[in-house]
Amino acid sequence: MARVLIVPVALYFIDNFSPVRSFIAACLYLVASVGDGLDGYLARSRGQVSVLGKFLDPLADKLMVTAVLVFLAAMGRATAWVVVVLIARDLCITGLRSIASSEGMVMAASPGGKIKTALQLVAISMLLVHFSYPVLGLGVSVDYQVAGSVLLYVSLVASLASGVEYVWGFAKAMGAVRRV
After folding, report:
1. pLDDT tens digits, residue range 9-28?
2. Which domains are present in the chain?
3. CA nearest 116: which of 73, 160, 83?
């Protein structure tokens, strides 16, 4: 639940004119993301996985990513159609997982889905940082807005590919269930 509470605070700090506020927003987003990973690890390692946790964890993830992406699009930091496609894909896969669950199947996170999530995490973090900063000791600067935008497009490709992976896996599983 802490991740859900961090979301509006992170959104508050997103600012196109203040590097400090943008950095704070990125840090809050990263804290929430690391908290998500730690929460999942602790629940699995201690055997404390619950039905409520299985519901709330993905909900918190989707809320966090969706809210930040929508804000970034509204502020001109992310391309709106890319955000729409990413959100639509997530909604479709969430729906597919619900159908699978109602049929007694579990659709675990695929390797492609994990890659998509990692790419989105880094892309969104970079888009939140937004400004250019010098790379220490190299004499060059990184424009985090440009780097984040490129990574968001890469995450879009990974997102669509993993979406196909989930649909294919679901179709195969449903075919196997129907044959039994």
Report:
1. 999 999 889 999 999 999 99
2. 2-179 (1.20.120.1760)
3. 160
